[in-house]
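2024-03-11 09:14:02 DEBUG pipeline.ingest accepted 1 chain
2024-03-11 09:14:02 DEBUG pipeline.ingest length=135
2024-03-11 09:14:03 DEBUG pipeline.predict start
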Amino acid sequence: MAEFKINHVAIVVPDVDEALKFWRDALGLTLNHVERNEEEAVQIAFLPTGESEVELLAPITEDSGVAKYLAKKGAGLHHLCIEVEHIEAVLSRLVAHQIELINDTPKLRPNGIKYAFVHPKSTGGVLLELYELPK
């Protein structure tokens, strides 16, 4: 069986700068960087924690998936991300086990990371993101 590790835990917040007042300023995590993901319509702050990261996600449009999530459920834990070696093989395995996917094929970030989401209906209520880092 392939080796897995937690890449990040994502937390939805209404405003990244406000959230950083706790995560960076009060708690003391180091802010690596902040970026805008136009495709997902979010601003993301990356705060390393050992081999993983805390990601703060804030919507940048009112109709994005994260904006809808925030309106429905409020701020808080959004998803868990697990790093995999071969994302296409993992997705195929999940489909073979009748697991409901949000993304049938991986999406590609500008930095070369492939990612896909697994529906919470199949995971016991947790939105799961799969990440394959560039080789």
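2024-03-11 09:14:41 DEBUG pipeline.report The beta strands are 5-12, 33-37, 42-49, 52-59, 76-83, 107-108, 114-118, 128-132.
2024-03-11 09:14:41 DEBUG pipeline.predict end
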